Amino acid sequence: MKFSVFQVSRQGGRETNEDRMGYCYTRESGLFLLADGMGGHPEGEVAAQLALQTISALYQKQARPVIDNMADFLSSALNAAHLEITRYATAKGMLDTPRTTLVAVILQDSGAAWAHCGDSRLYVVRDGELLSRTRDHSYLEQQGAGGRSPVPLNRNILFTCLGSPTQPVFDIAGPVVLQQGDKLLLCSDGLWDNLSDTEIVSEISSKGVAEAVPDLVESALRAGGAQSDNVTAMAIEWETPDAFESTYAVSTDSIMDGVFASTIQAGLLDTEIDELDDATIERSIAEINEAIRRSAAKRA
User: Fold this and answer.
1) Does position 300 have pLDDT exceeding 70, yes or no?
2) 122, 184 contact by CB (below 8 A)
3) In what order do the strands lie in the sheet with 19-25?
4) What kind and span of H or E run contains 34?
5) What DSSP line would sit under 207-255, residue for residue?
6) Among 111, 174, 176, 252, which residue's Cβ finds the most Cβ atoms within 10 Å?
7) Quick count: other Cβ atoms within 10 Å of Cβ 199?
8) What's the CA gap between 50 and 27, in Å, rounded?
9) The pLDDT of residue 281
10) Tens digit of pLDDT for each residue in 229-288?
11) pLDDT tens-place string over residues 133-191
12) Is 90 exceeded by the pLDDT of residue 203?
């Protein structure tokens, strides 16, 4: 398996950068993740990092060397990340929970499958055309799909994310068979909020990922001005085995079976990752709500 990858994250005009991204791979599979910790809630960067660590740990456990069922893995992994964030909040007795968006992509067997929760996006581009784009879990985008809203809507209002005191909603798509030169772009809303889909697709199509990603990020920062949000992007270009190996290409052919490579910062999770079911998630949500109720009662 061979692909080119490049990633950039910039703080913009915010006090901190709550975006997180990274990728990991085995000999025959790759996982790419981007999370945007949500402002207005505490420790968004912790939620984003916990999501990446949890999903990466599950991937390392299950990719031997491939994921048997990509859709099942993505579903269980996002639920696990959500549970890990709520456990963290419960352990700290937090009045409000850390929250994050997430987009996750798996490449293997010449195909790509992905999942997303919130408004971090994935763009899939082929031959200069937009092949696919995730639809944000925002009231604005969802109502826009069915026609104009009778009242103005704030695009920042999401109806789901990881870490909230309700079970998350997420979409899973693929697998899509990839062709030589196909490009996938994962990005936070700091990028797409300041650039149109047309601009994004044009830029990612006309340049290699190592040039397109920093150029896109710089364009978004300029458009956002002094109050720009964090801007984070990671792009992957799929390369067939006989294609020319680019400067930033990763070839997994030399990796031995059982070996796992990762750019995601390792860290010990507060709890062991379990097999999840709805009852487990609901118990965790109930614990969070009870902690919030107790904290509110003490303040009163």
Assistant:
1) no
2) yes
3) 171-177, 111-117, 100-108, 29-37, 19-25, 261-262
4) strand 29-37
5) S-HHHHHHHHHHHHHHHHGGGPPPEEEEEEEEE-TTSPPPTTEEE-TTS
6) 174
7) 15
8) 25
9) 47
10) 999 999 999 987 666 555 556 777 667 676 678 888 655 454 444 444 445 545 544 555
11) 999 998 777 665 544 444 445 556 888 999 998 889 999 998 999 999 999 999 999 99
12) yes
Cα torsion 161, 69, 106, 129 to 10°: value is -90
CB 76 within 8 A of CB 174: no
Distances (CA, A) of 114 to 70, 135, 140, 171, 176: 8, 12, 22, 8, 9
Taken in order 148, 154, 157, 158, the sign of the CA dihedral is: positive
Phi, psi of 225 (to 5 degrees): 70, -160
Q: What pLDDT score was predicted for residue 226?
A: 93
Q: Who's near 54: CB < 8 A, 6+ residues apart?
A: 77, 80, 81, 84, 269, 273
Residues ≥6 apart with Cβ < 8 Å to 156: 138
| Helix, strand or coil, per DSSP, at residue 69 | coil
Which are the contacts of 241, defined by CB distance < 8 A and separation ≥ 6? 2
Give residue 19's Cα distance to chain centre. 9
Six-digit token string for 97: 């929970």
**92 Rama class: left (phi>0) / alpha (psi -120 to 50) / beta:** alpha
User: How many beta carbons lie within 10 A of that of residue 62, not counting itself?
Assistant: 16
